[in-house]
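Anyone up for a design puzzle?
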C-alpha cells in the first residue's frame, strides 16, 4: 500500500486536477499498484475561507460576495471536469456542503464571534469540497474509489488550529476502516476531530501530516508527497535561483530544513514515518518522471555535506541581560517555563558562555508579549538590578544551514561566518544544535536574500 498526497498547488484548477488523475491512471491504476490518496483544498481556498470567516466576524457584508465567488469557483471546476449527464449527484453534494458552510458563516456574522473552534469548522470545508469533487470525478471516469472525510478517523485534542493527534485511537480507527473498505480511498487532508466529534485541524500545511498518519497506521510501503517542485531543494527556489533538487535527505535533515522554513514538507509529517521507518518521497506533479527526493533513515554515501539552507523570514529576537544571571542556576528554566505556560513557541535559543545574556527568537507577534511575561516573572530581580532591560528587536530573519555530515566536517562554521563577513553581512546571534546538524544565524531581514545566495554559492558547489 502507498499513500499519496497532492497539495493545493497540484489541484489549483481543472487542468491540474486532470493532470493528477492522469498520473494516478498511468503510474498506479494501470500498474495495479495499491494506493490511497490524500488531497488538500484547492489552491488558495483555505486562505479564502479564513478571510470569509474574518469578514463575517467584522460584520463586513463583503463576506457574502466572497462566499459566492468561492461557490462559483468550485462549480466551475465541477463543470469543467465532468460531463453534464452524470454530474447531478456531485452538484447535490457540493450544494449541501456550501449550505452548511453558509449557515456557519452567517452565524458568525450574527453573533459577532469567531472562535478557533468555529474557524476550524469553516476551513474544513476546503478539503471536504476538494475531495468530494475529485473523488466523484474519478468515479465518473470509472475509477473504483470512495471518498473518506478523515475527521472521522483522525482523533485529536481540542487545540483548535493545530491539534495534537491521539495516535492510539487514530491508528485503531484507520486500521479497522481499511479492513472494511478495500477500494481506493480519496482522503481529506488537514482535518481531524476531537473525542466529541468537533472538527479540528492539524495546522497549516497539515495535509502532508495526514498522509504520514495514514501511511504509518497502515504500514505503507511508501508515502508520496506530490507538489509543484522537483523535491526538496537546497534552498527555497523563490529566493535562491540556483537551488537544485536533492536525491535524498535523512528524516532529521528534512525535519530541520522544514522547521526552519522549507514549506515543501510540514515538519510533524516526518515523525509518524520515522517511527515506522517508512520512506517518504517528494515528487513533482508537473514533472512526474523526475525521481524527486527520497527521505530515508540513513544515506549510504551522501553527495553533499551541506544539504540545504532554509530561512524563517520574519522573527523577533528577545534579549535578557544582566550580571545577576551569572552562575545562578534555574534562570533559564524559569524563563522558558514562564514562556511555555503562555504557549509562546521558541524558535531558537542562544546563550553567551559568560551567561551574561540569553537571547531567543520568537514570531514577531510574540515579541512584546514575551517581554511582558519575562518582566513579570523576574520583577524582583529587575528591581534589584540583577537583570537589566529586556529588549525586543524586530525585522530579523533566521537562516539555518543543515546537513548531517557537518558534524564530521570541521570548518563549516568558519566558512559560513567568513563568507557573510566578507560581504559585510552582520550576524546578530548564532545557535548550533548539539547534534551539529544545523547552524542557525540571526541576521537583519534586509540581508536575507543576499545572505541566502552567498551561502548557497559558497557551500553548495
Ligand atoms: P503544496 O501545495 O503541494 O502543499 P507548498 O506550497 O506547501 O505545496 O510547498 C511547496 C513549495 O515550498 C514550493 O513551491 C517552494 O516554493 C517552497 N519551498 C520552500 N523551501 C523549499 C525547499 N527547500 N525545497 C523545495 N521547496 C521549497
Ligand atoms: N489546506 C490546508 C492549508 O492550506 C492544508 C494543506 O494544504 O496542507 O494549510
Ligand atoms: Mg504544503
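Challenge accepted. My sequence:
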Amino acid at each position: 500500500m502507498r499513500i499519496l498526497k497532492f497539495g493545493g498547488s497540484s489541484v489549483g484548477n481543472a487542468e491540474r486536477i486532470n493532470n493528477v488523475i492522469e498520473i494516478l491512471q498511468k503510474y498506479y491504476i494501470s500498474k495495479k499498484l495499491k494506493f490511497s490518496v490524500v488531497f488538500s483544498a484547492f489552491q488558495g481556498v483555505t486562505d479564502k475561507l479564513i478571510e470569509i470567516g474574518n469578514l463575517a466576524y467584522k460584520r463586513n457584508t463583503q463576506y457574502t460576495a466572497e462566499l459566492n465567488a468561492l461557490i462559483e469557483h468550485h462549480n466551475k471546476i465541477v463543470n469543467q471536469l465532468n460531463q453534464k449527464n452524470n454530474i447531478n449527484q456531485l452538484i447535490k453534494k457540493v450544494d449541501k456542503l456550501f449550505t452548511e458552510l453558509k449557515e456557519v458563516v452567517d452565524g458568525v456574522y450574527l453573533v459577532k464571534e469567531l472562535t478557533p473552534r468555529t474557524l476550524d469548522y469553516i476551513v474544513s470545508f476546503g478539503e471536504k469540497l476538494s475531495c468530494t469533487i475529485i473523488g466523484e470525478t474519478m468515479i465518473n471516469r470509472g475509477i473504483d474509489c470512495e471518498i473518506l472525510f478523515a475527521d472521522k478517523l483522525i482523533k485529536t485534542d481540542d487545540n483548535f488550529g493545530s491539534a495534537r493527534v491521539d495516535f492510539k485511537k487514530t491508528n485503531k480507527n484507520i486500521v479497522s476502516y481499511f479492513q472494511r473498505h478495500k477500494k481506493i480511498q480519496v482522503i481529506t487532508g488537514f482535518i481531524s476531530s476531537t473525542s466529541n466529534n468537533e472538527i479540528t485541524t492539524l495546522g497549516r500545511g497539515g495535509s502532508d501530516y495526514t498522509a504520514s498518519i495514514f501511511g504509518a497506521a497502515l504500514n505503507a510501503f511508501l508515502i508520496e508527497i506530490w507538489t509543484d517542485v522537483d523535491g526538496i531543494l537546497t534552498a527555497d527556489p523563490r529566493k535562491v535561483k540556483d537551488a537544485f533538487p536533492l536525491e535524498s535527505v535523512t528524516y532529521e535533515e528534512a525535519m530541520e530544513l522544514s522547521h526552519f522554513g522549507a514549506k515543501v514538507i510540514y515538519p510533524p509529517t516526518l515523525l509518524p514515518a520515522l517511527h515506522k521507518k517508512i520512506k517518504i518521497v517528494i515528487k513533482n506533479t508537473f514533472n512526474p518522471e523526475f525521481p524527486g527526493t527520497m527521505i530515508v533513515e540513513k544515506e549510504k554515501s551522501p553527495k553533499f555535506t551541506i544539504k540545504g539552507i532554509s530561512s524563517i523570514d520574519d522573527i523577533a529576537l528577545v534579549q535578557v541581560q544582566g550580571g545577576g544571571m551569572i552562575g545562578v542556576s534555574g534562570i533559564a528554566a524559569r524563563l522558558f517555563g514562564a514562556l511555555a505556560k503562555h504557549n509562546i513557541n521558541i524558535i531558537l535559543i542562544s546563550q553567551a558562555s559568560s551567561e551574561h545574556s540569553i537571547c531567543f527568537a520568537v514570531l514577531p507577534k510574540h515579541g512584546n508579549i514575551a517581554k511582558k511575561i519575562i518582566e513579570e516573572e523576574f520583577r524582583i530581580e529587575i528591581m534589584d538590578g540583577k537583570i537589566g532591560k529586556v529588549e525586543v528587536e524586530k525585522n530579523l530573519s533566521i537562516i539555518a544551514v543543515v546537513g548531517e555530515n557537518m558534524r564530521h566536517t570541521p570548518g563549516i562554521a568558519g566558512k559560513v561566518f567568513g563568507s557573510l563577513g566578507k560581504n559585510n553581512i552582520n550576524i546578530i546571534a548564532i545557535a548550533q544544535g548539539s547534534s551539529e546538524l544545523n547552524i542557525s544565524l540571526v541576521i537583519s531581514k534586509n540581508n536575507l536574500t543576499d545572505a541566502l545566495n552567498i551561502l548557497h554559492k559558497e557551500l553548495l558547489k
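A detail worth pointing out: The longest strand covers residues 308-321.
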